[in-house]
Automatic annotation (TrEMBL):
InterPro entries (alphabetical): Beta-barrel_TonB_sf, OMP_b-brl_3
Alphabetic keyword roster: Cell outer membrane, Membrane, Receptor, Signal
Annotated signal sequence range: 1-18
Main location: membrane
Domain Outer membrane protein beta-barrel: from-to ranges: 296-728
Pfam families, per database record: OMP_b-brl_3
Protein name as annotated: TonB-dependent receptor
Compartments reported by the entry: Cell outer membrane
Keyword Membrane on entry: yes
């Protein structure tokens, strides 16, 4: 993933209501047919339940379409999903975390018929039995159960026109015969991800502005194969393989840089120009295999589940970064500097999980289990710097090599007790205990001088969980949940590599980043299973984020003052988020209108200070973010049935996120109006989607420090687009899908992105 894209990604980290999926991720499987009759949305124990089989909008839609219509869920980019008030949403299928890459998962969700879904469960505060981090929530898709043998599947083709054209296609098939079930998918596509940037920062009397475009071509191919065999009436054995490959060659950054100097009265003294032209070739491969054994212990649902998994992730990235200055004719043909970077990363992980669930006749459930993860990442970074004199002559190269190897072992145990005391009252209590032992070794060579460094992190964490649900009567329900979680840094965040944007603008990762701790509380009131109020509080200690640090310095080549801006990955103080949201999920006018509306307020409290890059020791001007902000959030997803036969549907979706303070500064308001029309014809579905019709989904961040330092970012990812899709379902739609298995390596896979 490219450096500017990494910066863009964190813009959305502060949006507690706007939708985003994983970015992190997960995997999934196929789904089955359903006929829709009634609609139910209610609170059960530790989760919200949306009865898709009762919804009038399911037929002909994809799973992704239905998820966007589910209360508490939303999306800002039509690619990722987010639960209101949560940083990330993990996808589960029938109670098991999916195994797919984020890209593959999106394709799967967009190519799986919604008719296969029985219900969608939104778990805003997961219990101790779930391996989730930070304030992540869970979307559990429960599939309909069919017992017929046979073959079924679907094919889907789509084309999207934004700044560039993109195409995708997928093919899925399910086969069942007696005790054997096979489920497979193949999908791929081509696209160019465009972005435009304005990066403007100022320190003392020097301002640097970079304006231009990034084009990131991508070719993707991936899929999965799942084989499930019933050994006997009580036990099953399953093997799952998932693969995804991405090729991104000739990705370019083209920016015009303007350096302006001012006097003490704000008058311009001088202006200088340079140009940044970077080219990157990258490819990545992600393969995982999981072996699962499950045995049913009794007729009440008690069972033992065991998983063993292996994950291999490879990424090879080669960049050529050039800074050009004007020649005598004023053309940007003369090199000022060139830096070539070779940035490979290889991750190997072995994982295992054991889950034991014992159910008793008095509505009491005891669960216990454990997990083990052993991970090794190998990052052999090579930087070759080629300076030039003022005449454009290349000088001797300066080499900077860093071989960073990171070994991590995680041991986890959990126990939960769940009890239904009466028809009105139920509760759940549990805890996880996690031990993390890690060692990073960095062997560096800079200008032929070798240095060696070791970074050791060992910590133990006890993570309690509590929830209860009380049905006051048949119309009123109240529930409360408390959870504590950790967030470990992603492996790319630990790799101490510097990714260059321009000569004076870069990102710096950090091997010293430690895990952060998150504490979540949530109080929910629901009326008539249609109206709800959610109060949420999240406290994050030692949050992991990027911090914008800048400084002015004297360029030794020209003896002129310049300004440098670096995005430093580190632990940056503490953060609190408080929110209150009112919502309604209801069908009106004899199900001709399905309304899903949420509106709320969010209050952010930031508390962080940084002035030094912990990786390099470079001292910058002090950056302080101790600001508070209150913002409003509105999400409205509406489906209008246009005919009596339920073959034509119109969708009108809108979201608005008010300005709010995040780690990089003040994020200005975001909004998007999306329209779609759909036609169902026998086994075919034709759909046209218009996204970001008003072109209001553009990121802007602005920050002004007390010292006078200023930073402004504008990032446009060209979200306005038109998408046309055709879906065809074939075969016996009652074929029972293969069991969906949670891989033992899922938690680790999330951290590779």
């Amino acid at each position: 993933m490219k450096t500017p894209i990494l910066i863009a990604a964190i813009f959305f980290s502060g949006l507690s209501f706007a939708q985003q999926t994983k970015k992190d991720t997960v995997k999934t499987k196929s789904i089955e047919g359903v006929t829709l009759t009634k609609q139910v949305f209610k609170k059960q124990s530790d989760r919200f339940v949306y009865d898709v089989a009762a919804s009038p909008i399911a037929k002909g839609n994809t799973t992704f379409d239905i998820l966007k219509q589910t209360p508490l869920l939303s999306t800002t980019d039509d690619k990722t999903l987010k639960i209101a008030g949560k940083n990330n949403a993990l996808i589960y299928i029938n109670g098991r975390k999916s195994n797919m890459d984020a890209e593959s998962l999106v394709q799967f969700l967009k190519n799986t018929p919604a008719e296969n879904i029985q219900k969608i469960e939104v778990i805003t505060v997961p219990g101790s039995e779930y391996q989730v981090e930070s304030s992540d929530g869970i979307i559990n898709i429960v599939l309909k159960k069919k017992m017929s043998d046979g073959t079924s599947g679907n094919m889907r083709m789509s084309n999207t026109q934004s700044k560039y054209n993109a195409s995708n296609a997928s093919f899925s098939v399910n086969y069942r015969k007696d005790k054997l079930g096979i489920n497979a998918n193949l999908s791929g596509g081509e696209n160019i991800n465009p972005q435009s940037y304005i990066l403007r920062n100022r320190s003392e009397n020097v301002q640097n502005e970079s304006v231009g475009n990034i084009d990131d071509p991508n070719k993707n191919l991936g899929g999965y194969l799942n084989i499930d065999y019933q050994l006997n009436e009580k036990s099953n054995l399953a093997l799952s393989w998932n693969t995804w490959a991405n090729k991104s060659y000739n990705s370019t950054i083209d920016l015009m840089n303007t350096i302006t100097k001012y006097d003490t009265n704000g008058n311009i003294l001088s202006t200088a120009y340079t140009k940044t032209k970077n080219k990157e070739d990258a490819r990545s491969y992600n393969n995982s295999v999981n072996l699962n054994y499950e045995v049913k212990l009794d007729s009440l649902g008690s069972k033992l589940n065991v998983n063993a998994a292996y994950l291999n992730y490879k990424r090879f990235q080669y960049t050529n970064n050039n800074t050009l200055i004007q020649d005598a004719a004023g053309n940007f043909t003369q090199n000022s500097s060139k830096i070539i970077q070779d940035l490979p990363q290889v991750i190997n992980n072995f994982s295992g999980t054991v889950d034991y669930i014992q159910k008793f006749k008095n509505d009491f459930t005891f669960s216990a289990g454990g997990n083990y993860n052993k991970t090794k990442t190998d990052n052999d970074t090579k930087n070759y710097s080629y300076p030039y004199d003022l005449s454009g002559n290349q000088l001797a190269s300066q080499n900077d090599f860093n071989h960073f190897v990171y070994n991590e072992n995680i041991y986890g145990l959990y126990v939960t007790f769940e009890k239904k005391f009466s028809d009105k009252f139920s509760g759940k209590i549990g805890a996880r205990y996690e031990i993390t032992n890690s060692l990073g070794t960095a062997d560096s060579w800079k200008n032929n001088v070798e240095t060696n460094q070791q970074i050791e992190r060992n910590y133990n964490n006890l993570l309690p969980y509590l929830s209860f649900n009380y049905a006051i009567n048949d119309k009123n329900n109240i529930s409360y949940s408390f959870s504590s979680r950790m967030r470990r840094p992603s492996f790319w965040e630990l790799n101490p590599v510097k990714n260059l944007i321009t000569e004076d603008n870069y990102t710096q990762n950090n091997p010293f980043v430690k895990a952060s701790s998150t504490y979540n509380q949530e109080l929910t009131y629901m009326y008539k299973n249609s109206y709800f109020l959610i109060l949420n509080h999240t406290y994050e200690k030692d949050q992991i984020t990027q911090v914008p640090l800048q400084r002015s310095y004297i360029d030794p080549k020209t003896n002129q003052k310049r300004v440098q801006l670096a995005y430093i990955r580190t632990n940056f103080g503490d953060k609190q988020e408080m929110s209150a949201m009112l919502g309604i999920q209801k069908s009106l006018f004899k199900q001709y209108l399905t309304l899903n509306f949420n509106a709320g307020v969010q209050y952010n409290i930031n508390n962080g200070t940084l002035d030094t890059d912990p990786t390099t020791g470079q001292v910058f001007d002090t950056y302080v973010n101790n600001r508070k902000s209150a913002s409003m959030v509105i999400t409205s997803n509406n489906t209008i049935r246009l005919d009596k036969k339920k073959t034509w549907f119109l969708g009108v979706n809108f979201f608005y996120v008010d300005k709010q303070q995040i780690e990089l500064g003040m994020l200005k308001n975001l909004a998007s109006l999306d329209l779609n029309i759909k036609k169902n014809w026998n086994d075919w579905t034709f759909a046209v989607n218009l996204n970001d019709v008003l072109r209001t989904n553009v990121v802007e961040i602005e920050d002004l420090q007390a010292s006078g330092n200023y930073n402004y970012i504008r990032n446009d990812q060209y979200r306005r687009s038109i998408n046309v899709s055709i879906t065809y379902n074939f075969g016996n739609q009652k074929v029972k899908k293969v069991r969906n298995i949670e891989s033992a390596s899922d938690e680790i896979k999330n951290r590779t992105r």
